[in-house]
From TrEMBL:
Matching Pfam families: ArsC
Protein family (similarity comment): Belongs to the ArsC family.
Signal peptide: none
Name this protein carries in UniProt: Arsenate reductase
InterPro entries: Arsenate_reductase-like, Thioredoxin-like_sf, Tscrpt_reg_Spx/MgsR
Taxonomic superkingdom: Bacteria
């Protein structure tokens, strides 16, 4: 079973779900807004990809942060706190395959074989 992490009303997350459905792949969604993101998950995501890849610096949420909060994005420990407080900062979707392969973004998702 594939686990998709993201926000249910995100166009890219919906597109990823449709892509998986079209290939008959079973998946579940962990919606950050509904289910939150705990410290263990935040640390794991940042450990796999690093803060530079995980944090979306082009979105509205990023632009609304003050300089002090934006500075937290470079250190993995403070970045974990930042994405827990503002899950919309996380690039989407994050995909975890049944074999525990972690993928970030729609383009990486498309590397899964049918």
């Amino acid at each position: 079973m594939i686990k998709l992490y993201g926000i249910s009303n995100c166009d890219t997350v919906r597109k990823a779900g449709k892509w998986l459905d079209a290939r008959g792949m079973q998946w579940t969604l962990h919606d950050y807004r509904k289910h939150g993101i705990d410290a263990a998950l935040a640390t794991r995501i940042l450990g796999v990809f690093g803060p530079e890849r995980v944090i979306n610096r082009r979105g509205t949420t990023w632009r609304q942060l003050d300089d002090k909060d934006q500075a937290k994005a470079t250190d993995p420990v403070t970045a974990a706190e930042l994405i827990q407080a503002h899950p919309a900062l996380i690039k989407r979707p994050i995909v975890v395959t049944s074999a525990q392969h972690w993928l970030l973004g729609y383009d990486e998702l498309m590397t899964l074989s049918d």
